[in-house]
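Side project, low priority. Logging it here so it doesn't get lost.
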Amino acid sequence: MKILDFNSKNFWQSLSKAATPVMSLKDVSEIVAKVLQDVKERGDSALIEYTKKFDRANLTPKTLRVCEDEIKAAAKAVPAADKKEIKNAIACVKFFHKRTMPKNWRAKNPHGATVGENFYPIRRVGLYIPGGQVPLVSTVVMTATLAKLAGCPEICVCTPPSPEGKINSHLLTALSLSGVSEIYKAGGAQAIAAMGYGTKTIKKVDKLFGPGNAFVMEAKRRLFGEAGVDLLPGPSEVMIIADKTASARSVAADLLSQAEHGSGKEKIYLATTSKELVEEIPAELKRQSAPLTHADKLSKIIENGCFVVLVPDLDAAAEVANFIAPEHLELQVEARKVGHLTKAICTAGAILQTELTPTVLGDFTAGPSHTLPTGRTGRFSSGLQLIDFMRRSSVVKYDAKSIKKARKTVAAFAKMESLDAHGNSLFIREE
């Protein structure tokens, strides 16, 4: 754990170094480039070979897609109580995102012409769901629910199989409950390539969504333009702003929860006005992490990716937060200060207010998607939204009366830009 003093001479330089994301290594880029080209050229054959190499699963073109019997078997294997909670999470996500549904509109502009917008669901989307040792069932809920709500006609999902060629039963059940049935046993950059370029078995998608490791993110980055991509989220982050009212026990628990994701590059931040909290946190992190499943990985994050900033006041904490632009921001401060901080901080992916709102609620069930900007990209981007599964077209309709009002403006701009044909295309309509 590294402790930074806001008032120190080199504070901002140190904070910048701490917050700078680890860039994709050259070997990652080279491997991904080869995988993409291979899948583009050889399609299913390359995809199956890479699945055997990286996931140790022997598949054929016929077994790449999860069949209906596998989905039914998964549903039987999942306890009814778990299905109920998956449905509850889906309901919360729907509740939130229904309120963000854009509406077509029409209005008269200053010329008297009709202008407006139409919104359409993207026709075919590809969702990547990480699997393996940590099957992200919640990512199904946070992506597939939005795609269905937006009305996307085709939703394709890729998720890595086990060496036995199986997909986690809870993942399959969550997909089924979300209304998705086109599911493929493929992971990593090869799955992104298959969805981005298309193969004989997997039809090309229009836009790619979902989190993943460095190889998956590099594949999405390289495929931008061939297909659309959502965010390029990196390792998980959380920042907690705490004052003297905060509990070291709660703060440590929430820091550990986001360090648990497993990439080894997670960043966890604490900005606090309390010297006592700074002194208590190291022992509390050690005590709480010891019995946890991923204790070894957590200890490395605590050592290399945990940064504690001692600030003189909460305004300074807000300044630090706006610089870091954290994926998740928790405000564990006295209630009357929460509103002020929420207004002052404008770069966080998600703001979780008061000690009773740990990040895990946003991760699993609160409603907003947990796919959020990381690596300081919150300075210019936002978390996954319903509108990301849609596109818009502007609509313009002039008539004989409104076109006359636009004539002088068109003539002026045609002259300024030396674009005679532009102006003429309007003027001939007056002849």
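Brief comment: The CA atoms of residues 6 and 311 lie 5 Å apart.
Revisit when time allows.
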